From TrEMBL:
Organism: Halovenus carboxidivorans
Record-listed E.C. numbers: 1.1.1.34
Keywords: NADP, Oxidoreductase
High-level lineage: Archaea, Methanobacteriati, Methanobacteriota, Stenosarchaea group, Halobacteria
Family: Belongs to the HMG-CoA reductase family.
Listed name of the protein: hydroxymethylglutaryl-CoA reductase (NADPH)
Length: 539
């Protein structure tokens, strides 16, 4: 009997799963997505037998038992199979049923052990039929490899406590044996190594970065209001001095006015379809159910607020850009979790057929500069501005306002011609130094540096200069902000802890403004090289 292929909807989904799953039915999970339940690289021989790991990467569910298990095409006696959850509870296959399932929430793992067998080094095929509620009966067919781990170099780890003095000392010894370098400065740190858990793995010490202080800079913002000494971690001579010079110019003219105009953090999943028409129909369905999708996303966090879902359609792909407000956290992990929950609901409820799905299709441009960020915001969109009077320009900065304005316009054309991400002179300099000092994710400089600089020569020969940063990704809570030295630097700015992220954003923008003023003036006055000769690495 030949089953005709349906054109769309649930029947098409059922048809595809019948053909690709060996008769086991999964109405709600595309086969390519289902395979992500398996943890590749987990297959290994142990003293008890062969084990592998299944991890819930879909949505909260219940694991309701195994009906069939084959390894390399040979059936396994289910009496020889046991399951162990991440919290150490063990179950025989017969103990896990639809009436007595194992909770299987997102992120939870189940280790499956087949007792009494050993597999040779090489590739192996595993086929499992199991039940997971609310999905029903599912099948999973994967290939994995057992490697000779003794042939693969690896950093020493202590599975019980990888931040203990003993674990750290073992890594120091391993490094000395491996490289011939006896560490002298790296192991010198002033905090408990366990403070690094959640921020760094395989801890061996610290990279001591010189820390200078610039300013202070006067900020007249809606959140930051006062004079702030700016901690800058850098090894570049002249940087702190240059930013201090720009800050002094700002202070001489009354301070920088700062304004936060938008707040967004994004995740951009992509859904794959047979053709563009199916992708368009899916997009329309998403917008019809946007209210429910928002609810599913926001259930994962007490902070995340889904503001907007944007669609960007290309070929047979539907890119959806989920935009959130994330409070005092930078929020990349927060919005990833929220969007993951929303997308799993979409995959379960959408009546059409989704070929494949990825939580990020690279349209969120995480840690990459992009025009979509410039237009639509990622992080904080913040502007800092000041009007420099003629005396300050000439007598402090050494350049006439007309020269600064003229150079700014030429530099903008040069940036446009070269395809640069910013028309600024060096926004990344101050941001990178501030980020390292204050516990920010330093890779976010890639997005945050895309500043837009504008100068306007006024009738009284003063110069209005402003900088807008459309994707300033900063945090005062979570991530690296709780590390000891970084928290101290945030405290210098009165920005440590919750409730301060917009203040920190305004201070960061004022810092960038100071750097643009100083370097722009140095170039206009032909002082750039001579400054490095006297203060920097050229001497």
């Amino acid at each position: 009997m030949v089953i005709p292929k349906p054109d769309s909807g649930i029947l098409k989904r059922l048809y595809a799963n019948l053909l690709s799953s060996g008769g086991a039915i999964s109405l709600d999970i595309p086969d390519k997505v289902l395979k992500r339940l398996y943890t590749y690289g987990s297959l290994q021989n142990t003293d008890e037998g062969v084990e592998y790991e299944v991890k819930n990467r879909l949505q909260d569910a219940k694991f309701a038992g195994i009906q069939k298990l084959e390894i390399n095409g040979e059936g396994v006696d289910l009496d020889d199979v046991r399951m162990e959850t991440a919290d150490g509870k063990e179950f025989a296959v017969s103990e896990v049923t639809k009436d007595d399932p194992i909770p299987f929430s997102v992120g939870r793992t189940v280790t499956i052990t087949v007792e009494g067998i050993e597999l040779p080094t090489g590739d192996h095929e595993i086929y499992t039929e199991f039940v997971a509620e609310p999905f029903g009966q599912l099948s999973l067919k994967i290939s994995d490899t057992i490697r000779d781990e003794s042939q693969i170099a690896s950093v020493p780890r202590d599975e019980e406590n990888n931040y203990s003095e003993q674990a750290i000392a073992e890594r120091h010894e391993w490094l000395e044996e491996k490289t011939g370098v006896e560490l002298e400065h790296v192991p010198e740190y002033s905090f408990d190594a366990e403070r690094g858990e959640g921020n760094v793995e395989n801890f061996i010490g610290v990279a001591q970065m010189p820390l200078g202080v610039a300013g202070p800079v006067k900020v007249d913002g809606e959140y930051a209001d006062g004079e702030y000494p700016i901690p800058l971690a850098t090894t570049e001579g002249t940087l702190v001095a240059s930013y201090s010079r720009g800050m002094k110019a700002i202070n001489m003219c009354g301070g920088a006015t700062t304004t936060v105009t938008d707040d967004r953090m994004n995740r951009a999943p992509v859904f794959v379809f047979e053709d563009a028409r199916n992708a368009r129909d899916f997009r329309d369905w998403v917008y019809e159910h946007q209210e429910t999708i928002e609810e599913k996303a926001e259930e994962t966090s007490s902070v995340a607020n889904l503001v907007r879902i944007e669609d960007y359609m290309t070929n047979n792909f539907a890119h959806l850009r989920f935009s959130y407000e994330t409070g005092d956290a930078a929020g990349q992990n927060m919005v990833g979790k929220a969007t993951f929950a929303a997308c799993n609901w979409i995959l379960q409820e959408y009546p059409g057929y989704v070929e494949n799905f990825y939580l990020e299709g690279n349209f969120g441009t995480d840690k990459k500069a992009s025009k979509v960020n410039d237009m639509m915001t990622r992080g904080k969109r913040v502007t800092a501005e000041v009007t420099l009077d003629e005396d300050t320009c000439i007598h402090h900065l050494g350049a006439e306002p007309e020269s600064l304005d003229h150079h700014g316009k030429i530099a903008t054309l040069g940036s446009f011609f070269s395809g640069a991400d910013t028309n600024g002179a060096h926004p990344a300099n101050g941001l990178a130094s501030l980020f390292i000092a204050c516990g920010q994710d330093e890779a976010n400089v890639a997005e945050s540096h895309s500043a837009m600089i504008n100068t306007t020569l006024l009738q009284d020969n003063s110069l209005h200069i402003s900088v807008t940063i459309p994707s300033l990704i900063v945090a005062t809570y979570g991530g690296g902000t709780g590390m000891p030295t970084q928290r101290e630097c945030l405290a210098m700015l009165d920005c440590d802890g919750a409730g301060n992220v917009n203040k920190f954003a305004e201070i960061a923008a004022a810092t960038v403004l100071a750097g643009e003023i100083s370097l722009g003036a140095a170039i206009s006055a032909s002082d750039w090289v001579t400054s490095h000769e006297s203060l920097g690495r050229n001497r």
